[in-house]
Description:
The protein has 3 helices and 11 strands, in the order E-E-E-E-H-E-H-E-E-E-H-E-E-E. By secondary structure, the protein is of the alpha+beta class. The strands form 2 sheets. A 7-stranded mixed β-barrel has the order 1-6-5-9-8-7-11. The longest helix is centred in the last third of the chain and has 12 residues, at 124-135. It comes from marine metagenome.
Amino acid sequence: VNGKVLHINRKPKTPGEFGLPKQEVERAQITAEGIDGDYNDFRATKKDNHPDMALLLMPIETIRELNEEGWPAKVGDLGENIVTEGILLNAFEPEMKFDIGGAQIQISYECDPCYKLHSLPYIGEERGPEFIKTMMGRRGWYARVLEPGDIAVGDTFSLAEAA
Length: 163
């Protein structure tokens, strides 16, 4: 199970905003809390910055599927920190460990879509329930950080060797 890092996204804490959409960066430092400089409102306010929610991963293949279905989702819109290419959403499983650049992460659990996606300009309150239904089982995977390190766009995203 191997792929590559296609995009890295983060958004600093911004008063009155939830952390969507995230902005793309070429490289970032992964700390125990996630991408350095990133803010996730749900994680911070409801989950006490739980380490199992440090990163949100999303395959580009899922974003492309949404586009084909008529949803104009762009990279960063869904709150994802790392967009992969070459590993489909259903290939991820809890406890899988991946090496990315100088970091190692472990898949924790699937991310459920939330009402904050309504804040996207092409969704809104009217289409929100339909989009939430569309996103069930497709919002990506949360991961915890096992080894902090630097990552960059283009890095290999590969299943870690069993010890």
